[in-house]
Amino acid sequence: MTSDSAGEQDIYDPLYLAGIEHFNVCDFFEAHETWEELWTEYRGPARRFYQGLIQAAVALHHFGNGNIRGARKVYLTSLNYLADYPAIYQGLDLENFRKQYGECFAEILDSEEEYPQIEIIPDLIPEIHLQPAAADA
Description:
This protein has a two-stranded antiparallel sheet with strand order 1-2. The protein is built from six helices and two strands, in the order H-H-H-H-H-E-E-H. By secondary structure, it is mainly alpha-helical.
């Protein structure tokens, strides 16, 4: 990930940033593992936020592997974890992320088949680019 701000490493947990790097190269399993390491020890207000990102990575991992039913279920769970956070949180434009994430999953959500055969569209996979630190203030 290219930093939008030279001071990001000082502001955000290194595991949060490492998870973003994995996420943005579509290594969703490693993003999940990295964020889970952060989430396991963390006991603050961002705990459910991190859990939502973990679930988003898992949903995208399932989608990429063709587990459409699992992807749909975890997608919906991830949105519940992220629902109570403001539009911008931990430098992430959550409003935009949720929009892109929803567009990526739209075909799955629209499908009425029990076992749909849907392939992920690479151009619709969301990326995480942090806002400048002042955006959180």
